[in-house]
Amino acid sequence: MTARKDWDTYFMDIAYMASTRSRCNRRHVGAVLVQGKKLLGTAYNGAPSGVPDCSEAGCMLVEEIELVPAEGKEQVVKKQRCIRTIHAEQNLLLFTDREDREGSVVYVTDQPCWTCANMLANSGISEIVYHRAYPKDHDKVSALMEQKKLTFRQLEKYEPPASTISEVTN
């Protein structure tokens, strides 16, 4: 008899299953909303409903410039991101109710970007659990979660189901 999965593994597996719906060429991301042990919603990243997605119309990449303090100076950091895609966390917030989110946990395959972290911080949730790191925004997102007193943790030893793994490009 195989061992029963713990709750973190169970819900992260579901987030990875949701990510398989994504048609994004750069990154497949899935998210789930959980209250207690009850699943309240799932989401994935992609273009708005009824609009061609990245696999059909290509990515809409923009370059952003951020000034980051480093060794007493400001360093210019360039980032590219696709603006065709609505992030999984944003879709999760769009399709769940505020009262369901109060005190809930979001499981997300990837650490939220700065924009998603801001939205989640103001959504009523109490915890974010993620698997893959997103180094571009890690420090400022971690600081925000600490300021908001939200539990923010990475499942480092987690192994996603083999059928859900996609190539990640930054």
UniProtKB/TrEMBL annotation:
The active site is at E89 (proton donor). PROSITE patterns: CYT_DCMP_DEAMINASES_1, CYT_DCMP_DEAMINASES_2. SUPFAM superfamilies: Cytidine deaminase-like. It comes from Paenibacillus naphthalenovorans. One of its GO terms (molecular function) is zinc ion binding. Zn(2+) binds at H87, C113, C116. Its cofactor is Zn(2+). It comes from the Bacteria. Pfam families: dCMP_cyt_deam_1. Keywords: Hydrolase, Metal-binding, Zinc. Belongs to the cytidine and deoxycytidylate deaminase family. One of its GO terms (cellular component) is cytoplasm. InterPro entries: APOBEC/CMP_deaminase_Zn-bd (IPR016192), CMP_dCMP_dom (IPR002125), Cytidine_deaminase-like (IPR016193), dCMP_deaminase (IPR016473), dCMP_deaminase-rel (IPR015517), Deoxycytidylate_deaminase_dom (IPR035105). This is Cytidine and deoxycytidylate deaminase. Residues 6-155 form the CMP/dCMP-type deaminase domain. One of its GO terms (biological process) is pyrimidine nucleotide metabolic process. The keyword Heme does not apply.
